[in-house]
Design brief:
2 domains; alpha/beta; Aspartate Aminotransferase, domain 1; Aspartate Aminotransferase, domain 2; 15 strands; four-stranded mixed beta sheet; 15 helices
Length: 466
């Protein structure tokens, strides 16, 4: 007797029932019902593709949400999770307890990270990681006898999460409007965004100076105005992701390191998006030979197979925690810090990235991907700029017939149409204002990336004529 083939995804799903339950009982991130009228019901992931309930395949051009580095459907990670669950699914990792996966993953991360970092505190997500970074910075300065050093200086166009402090550090007003007032002592400075340069005519034109502005000096002036004696840390993504893949000038981060040293403040690198090979380095500040005092991470540490994040801290901060008086101990805590299953999966994921050379691959294939985008898209009149690094890229679109802020803002609706056309043709991208963002899995083939560029180019040409 011939055995019937296994059912396909759409044969296993009552789509109408799922959508009914979703519509009636689920609030999604960034939610408004009008944006969710026809959601894709995703039922499977395979490699660099995801598959919906109708059996249609899509190239996952944003790696889920910048985070599925090794691709979907890795049975090896599922087995690691099952084995760890069958051994020890959970025990709290509070002081007095330890578990094997969290200790081993911490050791491995310190091996991979910047040489000055020496200890890890685990969280479950990027926002929680940044909250931990802020609290750790304040803790450090209080132990140092400087309790007034509490302010965090971040940059406009930066994204650090949507918990209250992380949202207050975020430099994107859309995340503030309905949740204000924000947490005090979070200050935004100018971002190193040459294409929408706020230092020229209020951000209504690209930078006209051949060598650009000194954006680090602008941040330093903000710090001086606030009073360095009140500032705990400078915070920034090495490459601003949700702001539109903003790659800084090469001298920017070395200058920020010097500014932090000069004014006796900590430097926090938010590597939630840029970590674990996304930019072609294990961690992105390596592009500029800079080491932070605190680094927040999440996303790629498990390739999103389970929620995990954390911060890595310098020897100096670790020593302060270790030497604190008992009545001033580090009372930051979370139920799932050091979760054994998440850490076991994280360790296996990092080993896959190492074994398959995906960091090096992101550098080489990413450079060719960016070249494809620039060659095919930059000549188009509605494409203002193509930018990126490693396996992350942004295509900022404009209205070439407009001036002032309309030069950018008139393109927002066009980008929405372009992205929708790409989705219809099996390519998943993300619209962020007037910029199309891409961060394909690190395993993506050059053929898949070329197909993405071809479809995107066709969509821009077709929708720009409408």
């Amino acid at each position: 007797m011939v055995q019937a083939p296994p059912p396909t995804p759409h044969e296993l799903v009552d789509v109408d029932q799922v959508l009914r339950a979703d519509r009636e009982h689920l609030i999604h991130p960034l939610y408004h019902p009008s944006d969710h009228a026809k959601p894709l019901v995703i039922v499977r992931g395979e490699g660099a593709e995801i598959i919906d309930s109708a059996g249609k395949r899509y190239f996952d051009g944003l790696s889920g949400l910048w985070n599925v580095h090794i691709g979907h459907g890795r049975a090896e990670l599922a087995q690691v999770a099952a084995d760890q669950m069958g051994t020890l699914a959970f025990n709290n990792n509070y002081v007095g307890f330890a578990n094997v996966p969290s200790a081993r993953l911490a050791e491995k991360l310190i091996e991979l990270a910047y040489p000055n970092l020496n200890a890890v505190y685990f969280t479950t997500a990027g926002a929680e990681s940044n909250e931990s970074a802020f609290k750790t910075a304040r803790f450090f300065w209080k132990l140092d006898g400087k309790p007034e050093k509490v302010k965090i200086i971040s940059r406009r166009w930066g994204y650090h999460g949507v918990t209250m402090a992380a949202a207050s550090a975020t430099g994107l007003p859309a995340y503030h409007r309905m949740f204000a007032p924000l947490v005090p002592n979070f200050i935004q400075a100018a971002a190193p965004y040459r294409f929408r340069c706020e230092l020229e005519d209020g951000g209504v034109r690209p930078c006209r100076l051949p060598d650009g502005h000194d954006y680090a000096a602008e941040l330093e002036q903000t710090l001086i105005n606030e009073g360095p004696e009140t500032v705990a840390a400078i915070l920034g993504e090495p490459v601003q992701g949700a702001g539109g893949v903003i790659v800084p000038p090469d001298d920017y981060w070395p200058k920020l390191r010097e500014i932090a040293n000069r004014h006796n403040v900590l430097l926090i690198a938010d590597e939630v998006i840029t970590g674990f090979g996304r930019t072609g380095k294990w961690f992105a500040l390596d592009h500029w030979n800079v080491q932070p005092d605190i680094m927040s991470f999440a996303k790629g540490v498990t390739s999103a197979y389970l929620p995990l994040g954390g911060i890595m801290i310098s020897h100096q901060i670790q020593n302060a925690i270790n030497e604190a008086p008992l009545d001033l101990k580090f009372t930051h805590a979370a139920t799932y810090s050091g979760h054994p299953v998440c850490c076991a999966v994280g360790l296996a994921n990092v080993e896959i990235i190492e074994r398959e050379g995906l960091v090096e691959r992101a550098a080489s294939v990413g450079a060719r991907f960016l070249s494809m985008l620039k060659t095919q898209l930059e000549p188009l009149p509605t494409v203002g700029q193509v930018r990126g690094i490693g396996m992350m890229a942004g295509v900022e679109m404009v209205d070439p017939n407009a001036t002032g802020s309309a030069y950018y803002d008139n393109a927002v609706a066009l980008v929405g149409r372009v992205v929708a056309r790409c989705v219809a043709n099996g390519q998943l991208l993300r619209r962020l204002n007037n910029t199309i963002c891409m961060a394909p899995p690190l395993i993506s083939t050059e053929e898949q990336l070329q197909r993405l560029v071809d479809v995107l180019g066709e969509a821009i040409r077709a929708e720009s004529q409408g």
